[in-house]
Amino acid sequence: MHWQLTEDDQDLFERTIAPLLPERIFDAHAHLYRHAHYGPGGPPPLFAATPAEVGLGRFTQDISWLHGQGRTVGGLFFGLAFTGDRASNNAFVAAETLTGRDHGLAALPQLVVAPDDDPDQVRERVRQGGFVGLKPYHTMATTDGPTWQAPLEAYFPEALARVAHEEGLTVTVHLVRDRALADPLNQAAVRRYCERYPAMRMILAHAGRGFNPWHTIEGVSALAGLANLWFDTSAVTEAGGFEAIVDTFGHERLLYGSDFPVSHLRGRCVAIGSSFHWLYADGPTVVERHGAVRPVLVGLESLRALTLACRRLRLTDAQIEDLFYGNAAQLFSLGR
Ligand SMILES: [Zn+2]
To answer: Quick check: 95 and 38 in contact, CB under 8 A?
Structure first.
């Protein structure tokens, strides 16, 4: 069910997505890992269906389900076993991305960091491993309550933002709290970090965690004017957040990302009230009322939403090429 390509997937790809895709795609949000990095308990149930080793070989092979053949030319890669054996997962990502050329990829690694990591050791690790950026994550937050309510500082402390500034790193941030980008605490934290650390380049993952697009629609203007802020499209299955970002920041700040391997799960996210809910093909929430429900891969849903945003925004071919490659090429100084 997850991690397989069905006729429905292929049909949706050919009909809706392929006509829009440019020749070159840089995937600005993809995870590499081994199940073993999660420790004896293995990965969480959602990722149990993923291959036991997800390296660049696997990525190159299976990302073609979303991109077709021959288009994927690079990516920004980081670990996934945030609360498992992070050190081994980081080492795996560094080693895999070194083999990028063998796969025809400009493969750039980001280092997964915990809030209590020593800033000087992070700096050393970044330099040694050739990491271009950092990847904090809320599940490692130092907070008393549930981590999905954590303020940014609890999982990405200021000392690490300073390292990112001094080393010129990108930082892929998955905001949390109920209303994500519409949350005043999040807005204030992002603005403060970006203004105080201008050489840090912050990428807000999932369109500012716009799984409910209304949060991004409502909140994105509060960040207008920040020169070192980008957004990625990863795993967002509705168009409204993409549109709001392009309206506010211009198309240059939106980076395509697949969220591989989440992209290869089957289902989609829906906005419900001021919340959101992930529907998976094997979950209890897909109820067949009006004929068969036939979910496709999350990554295809996300690409379809992006094609809708591109159409509604009347983006030119050149602007669409920027979303998929040019913006990342600029950000990471790749060839144009
Ligand atoms: Zn992700």
So the answer is: no
CA 140 to chain centre: 17
Q: How far does residue 59's CA lie from ligand 1's centre (Å)?
A: 14
pLDDT tens digits along 96-132: 999 999 999 999 999 999 999 999 999 999 999 999 9
Q: Please give the distance, rounded to the nearest whole angstrom, from the Cα atom of residue 28 to the centre of ligand 1.
A: 10
* Separation between Cα atoms, residue 213 and residue 241, nearest integer Å: 5
Q: Report CA(290)–ligand 1 centroid distance (Å).
A: 33
List the strands of the sheet with 229-232, edge to edge: 25-31, 72-78, 106-112, 133-135, 170-173, 201-204, 229-232, 254-255
Per-residue pLDDT tens digits for 158-167: 999 999 999 9
User: Can you tell me the distance from the alpha carbon of 185 to that of 247, in angstroms, rounded to the nearest whole number?
Assistant: 23
Residue 102, C-beta contacts closer than 8 angstroms, at least 6 positions apart: 56
CATH code of the region 7-264+296-331: 3.20.20.140
- Give the distance (Å) from ligand 1 centre to CA of residue 118: 24
**Distance from Cα 137 to the centre of ligand 1, integer Å:** 10
C-alpha of residue 268 to centroid of ligand 1, in Å: 15
Q: What pLDDT does 287 receive?
A: 65
Cα of 247 vs centre of ligand 1, distance in Å, is: 24
How remote is the CA of residue 234 from the centroid of ligand 1, in Å? 7
- The tens digit of pLDDT for each residue in 256-273 reads 999 999 999 999 999 999
Strand partners, 92: none
Q: Is the dihedral of CA 174, 176, 179, 185 positive or negative?
A: negative
Tell me which residues of the chain have a pLDDT lower than 50.
Answer: none
Residue 296, number of CB atoms within 10 A of its CB: 20
Three-state DSSP at 126 gives: helix
